[in-house]
Amino acid sequence: MSASPRVSTLLRRFDRWATPVLAVVAVAVFVGEVVRPLRRRTRPRGKRWPVNVGLAAPSLVGMRLTLLPAMVGLTQLAARQRWGLHRLRLPEPVRLLAELLVLDYVAYSWHRLLHAPFLWRFHRVHHIDLDMDLSTGWRFHAGEMLASIPYRGGVTALVGVRPGTLLAYEVVFEACTAFHHSNWRLPITLERRLTHFFVTPRVHGIHHSVVHRETQSNFGVVLTLWDRLHRTWRVNVPQQELTIGVPAHPDPAEDTVSHLLRLPLEPLRPWARPNGSVPERAPQPGPISRLVE
Ligand SMILES: [Zn+2]
Is the Cβ–Cβ distance between 205 and 211 less than 8 Å? Predict the structure, then answer.
């Protein structure tokens, strides 16, 4: 795609701001998960990180070269055509809040679609990581990122989100993705307070559980509001009882960059271990909305 000068100007500005901000967030999160780990690791970092970084590299380059220019271009088209919010005369703070809520709801709903059979072919590459830490937040198949362009770009443009808001949200989206995938043990009282608004490491850890009911929970990216509204909020599972991954993909020997890049072409496997057993968990004590250690 050839970018118009305006698209490339906006993206150069994005690069100048987003790169240092996201680098600082990544370092802070990494220090947090090294100093105060949340869940016990099942595999050493040295085995997983090369794989996760190997998958992340093409996805990040693809995101910068396709997803971001396409989304910015679509939002600029929407501004010229005066779609959606462009037709309303809203005060600036109301307009900005509406745009940010739309962007985060689009992220939530896209994540739910990723768990439907066709898109799960791509998204399972992210979920079959056998531990979860900062590097899991970068481990996405490039096909998943390409598939998101029509939905994330299209809905955002139709609603009339401005390109500047879109790029500002993208920085928040990436920072929150790094944070909630991290293995950083925050004090439980602090994390309970944060979950009134934001997705946190314990909350998202439950989404990466091998128990199907738990994977079908906590789809939010930045705000927890959408999971509460859609009744997909489930946080009363102790972190030390979680097994991270997908039960049909327990073999670390399959966790190679070349296998994971080919995985979308392989048939879907049932939600069960290779021996046919299905991971389950007895109902947890306490309300489903009460975050536990
Ligand atoms: Zn997911």
Answer: no
The residue among 293, 124, 107 whose CA lies nearest residue 210 is 124
Compute, in angstroms, the gap from residue 292 CA to the centroid of ligand 1.
21
Q: Average pLDDT, stretch 23-36?
A: 98
Q: Which residues contact 50 (CB under 8 A, 6 or more apart)?
A: none
- For residue 198, list its beta bridge partners: 223
Q: How far is the CA of 86 from the centre of ligand 1 (A)?
A: 32
Q: Which residues pair with 37 in a beta bridge?
A: 184
pLDDT digits (tens, 9 = 90+) for 65-123: 999 999 999 999 999 999 999 999 999 999 999 999 999 999 999 999 999 999 999 99
Residues in CB range of 17: below 8 A, 6 or more apart: 171
* Domain-wise residue ranges, the chain: 5-265
Spatial CB neighbours of 223, under 8 Å, sequence gap ≥ 6? 101, 104, 108, 197, 198, 199
Question: What span, in angstroms and rounded, lies between the C-alpha atoms of 117 and 203?
Answer: 23
